[in-house]
UniProtKB/TrEMBL annotation:
Source taxonomy: Bacteria, Bacillati, Cyanobacteriota, Cyanophyceae, Leptolyngbyales
This protein's record includes keyword Iron-sulfur: yes
PANTHER family hit by this protein: SULFITE REDUCTASE [NADPH] SUBUNIT BETA, SULFITE REDUCTASE [NADPH] SUBUNIT BETA-RELATED
Protein name: Sulfite reductase [ferredoxin]
PROSITE patterns in the cross-refs: NIR_SIR
Top-level EC class as recorded in UniProt: oxidoreductase
Assigned EC number: 1.8.7.1
Entry similarity comment: Belongs to the nitrite and sulfite reductase 4Fe-4S domain family.
Cofactors required: [4Fe-4S] cluster; siroheme
Subunit structure: Monomer.
A Gene Ontology term for the protein's cellular component: sulfite reductase complex (NADPH)
Reaction it catalyzes: hydrogen sulfide + 6 oxidized [2Fe-2S]-[ferredoxin] + 3 H2O = sulfite + 6 reduced [2Fe-2S]-[ferredoxin] + 7 H(+)
Name of the gene encoding the protein in the UniProt record: sir
Residue ranges of every copy of the Nitrite/Sulfite reductase ferredoxin-like domain listed in the record: 71-132, 370-436
Function: Catalyzes the reduction of sulfite to sulfide, a step in the biosynthesis of sulfur-containing amino acids and cofactors.
Length: 639
């Protein structure tokens, strides 16, 4: 049994901490100043209020499209749900749909962590909104802030595949294990009324309580037996998956558990991965994206102790002064994996077993119709960039509401920002497909593959961290890339493209084969070399790509890929094998072919390394492009 230590071991009694640590300590376990400021007749919260509000699942935002010099910002709140494995019961979805129209901006946003977000909630409507969500079997507690975020799991609702059932079960249990226990949430939003959404597993309750230590008590119980008064140093992300299914981006999590079963599909235990994370900061080399390490294997009886041991290690030793370095990936990097494992084993009181061999990972999105395994069906519905709305011919908001309302089906949000409608009676398949077709929802077989495997964060105008666009521009970017691929004879080619409006990595761009990371207005870092199954991290290829130069910069890369790829090789794998230096050399000498009939069709010619070096030096000295220097030299030689 892992116990909560009374204080972090081997730590100095006084350690420099960030301002936010004091805000958390003064919050009375997430009560203040939110409880007081909520009653004030203002349009927004103070800075301290904003920080504590995050733990309740809300970010304060302002719409930058509506900013007017000299006037107050257009403040509103974004609410994010906590629903492990993406599960949304019918009554909750209908409530969210109602709220989005009554209090929000008439849209819902499916996130990359299998949750829904609501945007545009005014401060004066925040309490009513949250009360409606909670009373409809929903919760936002812990969806944001310095604690465990929404726990992910494969969204496919298979009933005849025990490993998937187990992944969903343990995602829910670990979410419950790591949910804040403060009563402030219900006191503030429901005036103290406690609404129990689901009954917790007794094993989870026992694991969470353990030995309670000397954390402040309330009614004879420890308020936060897992987190203490300061909660975690930063956000903490977990996932549970099954062998071979990488729909959850397993290598990007703080903790990923992989279900291990015997030949009869009975649970044995879990492979454990730890130390992944996407966020970084431009021009801060000490920050970086990192993929998780294989830590070991744990028996099923010890899985909750294992999770607690990892959480306690990060809680006690994670950086609490420089928040840029506060994620657990930096602790693992700083310590090294052996020391990290040793600390976990000390807290558990036993050794971990070696990581067990797994089949190759594969990305799954589960779009289209599938057998559920219990006589019912499920259908994966493509939602472009996760935005559920009614706009023009696309009326996916109307369609989803009608389907959920008429057929009482539950829903699972996918890690790729789409949704799965579950528990469908086969007799209703035709009627549901008719609704989807009527409201402009593209069938999975007709979704362009670049769009199907892409992701983008919301970014502007509401995200306070965004430096440029993401969700609003990626459709145009994908169209331009498809046109370019067609021009180069790569029609039908596909790869994983992801875009964010800042370097924090919400859409996990650092795992993409082609990643766009917001760097400045209308400009992006270009990252290349992730794998199609999201097991290898990409690397930065271009520091600044202006969107107007998209074709100029990408055409040489795609042409090189076309000419030198191995059979069946993906774009990301090609970029790694061919090397960035090789790509840059090719791009330097690449001359785009002229349209047929122009009278000036230009072709690419290879040169020796020695001649290439001379060309490069000449171009640098004259201020000309290498292509121009080469063409002039050839003309002089031939004339």
């Amino acid at each position: 049994m892992v116990h909560t230590p009374l204080k972090p071991a081997d730590q100095p009694t006084e350690k420099k901490v960030s301002k936010l640590e004091g805000i958390k300590e003064r919050s009375q376990f997430l009560r203040e100043p939110v409880a007081t400021e909520l009653k004030q007749d203002t349009t927004h919260f103070t800075e301290e209020g904003i920080q504590i509000l995050k733990f309740h699942g809300s970010y304060q935002q302002d719409n930058r499209d509506n900013r007017v010099r000299g006037q107050e910002k257009d403040y509103s709140m974004m609410l994010r749900l906590r629903n492990p494995g993406g599960y949304i019961p019918p009554q909750l979805y209908l409530t969210l749909d109602d709220i989005s129209d009554k209090y929000g901006n008439h849209t819902l946003r499916a996130t990359t962590r299998q949750a829904f977000q609501l945007h545009g909630i005014l401060k004066k409507n925040l309490k009513a909104t949250l009360a409606d969500i909670i009373r409809s079997m929903g919760s936002t507690l812990g969806a944001c802030g310095d604690l465990s975020r929404n726990v992910m799991a494969p969204p496919a609702p298979y009933k005849n595949k025990p490993e998937y059932v187990l992944a969903r079960k343990y995602a829910t249990n670990i979410a419950d294990l790591l949910t804040p226990q403060t009563s402030a949430y219900y006191e503030i939003w429901l005036d103290g009324e406690k609404v129990v959404t689901t009954e917790e597993d007794p094993e989870v309750v026992a694991a969470r309580e353990g030995r309670k230590g000397l954390v402040r008590t309330e009614h004879g119980k420890s308020i936060e037996p897992i987190y203490g008064t300061h909660y975690m140093p930063r956000k903490f992300k977990c996932a549970v998956t099954v062998p071979g299914d990488n729909s959850v981006d397993a290598y990007t999590q703080d903790i990923t558990l992989v279900v291990i079963t015997d030949e009869n599909k009975e649970l044995l235990g879990f492979n454990v991965m730890a130390g992944g994370g996407m966020g970084r900061t431009h021009n801060k080399e000490e920050t970086f994206a990192r993929i998780a390490d294989h830590v070991g294997y744990v028996d099923k009886e010890d899985v909750y102790d294992l999770v607690k041991a990892i959480v306690f290690t990060q809680r006690d030793y994670g950086e609490r002064f420089n928040r840029r370095l506060s994620r657990m990936k930096y602790l693992v990097h700083r310590w090294g994996l052996p020391k990290f494992i040793d600390e976990i084993e000390k807290r558990m009181g036993k050794k971990l077993e070696p990581y067990r061999e797994l089949p190759e990972w594969k990305f799954e999105d589960y779009l289209g119709w599938h057998e559920q395994g219990d006589g019912k069906l499920f259908v994966g519905v493509h939602i472009r960039n996760g935005r559920v709305h009614n706009q023009g011919k696309l009326q996916n908001k109307r369609a989803l509401r009608e389907i959920v309302e008429r057929f009482n089906v539950s829903m699972r949000v996918t890690p790729n920002q789409s949704v799965i409608l579950c528990d469908i009676d086969p007799a209703n398949k035709a009627a549901i497909q008719t609704i989807l077709d009527r409201d402009g929802i593209t069938p999975d077989s007709q979704v362009d593959s670049l769009e199907r495997y892409s992701m983008a964060c919301p970014a502007l105008p509401t995200c306070g961290l965004a430096v440029t666009e993401s969700e609003r521009v990626i459709p145009t970017i994908l169209t331009r890339i498809r046109k370019l691929l067609n021009k180069l004879g790569l029609k039908g080619e596909t790869f994983v493209i992801r875009m964010t409006g800042c370097p924090n990595g919400c859409a996990r761009p650092y795992m993409a084969e082609l990643g766009f990371v917001g760097q400045a207005p209308k400009s992006y870092q270009l990252w290349l070399g992730g794998s199609p199954n999201q097991t290898r991290i990409a690397r930065p290829y271009l520091e600044k790509l202006h969107e107007d130069s998209l074709e100029d910069q990408l055409e040489p890369l795609f042409a090189c890929f076309r000419d030198y790829r191995n059979e069946g090789e993906s774009f990301g794998d090609f970029c790694c094998r061919y090397t960035f230096e090789g790509l840059r050399q090719f791009s330097e000498t690449y001359v785009p072919p002229q349209p047929t009939g122009s009278g000036r069709r230009r072709n690419r010619v290879g040169v020796s390394d020695e001649l290439f070096a001379k060309l490069k030096a000449k171009a640098s000295a004259t201020g000309k492009s290498m292509a121009d220097v080469l063409e002039e030299a050839i003309k002089d030689a031939l004339d």
